[in-house]
Design goal:
By secondary structure, this protein is mainly alpha-helical. It contains two helices and no strands.
Length: 48
């Protein structure tokens, strides 16, 4: 796995769907942008 980071079974389906079902609207709003920022950072780091 790249840089020791191991994905969940299916990050986009299993973790996000199940996790967001148990979260409040405020947490969903914050975590939504945070997940996007983290995904973009990891993608850029792969090309650096």
């Amino acid at each position: 796995f790249y840089q020791g980071i191991r994905p969940a079974i299916s990050v986009g389906l299993s973790v996000s769907r199940v996790g967001s079902a148990a979260q409040t609207k405020a947490i969903k709003k914050v975590s939504g942008t945070t997940k996007l920022d983290l995904a973009q950072f990891r993608e850029l780091a792969a090309f650096a």
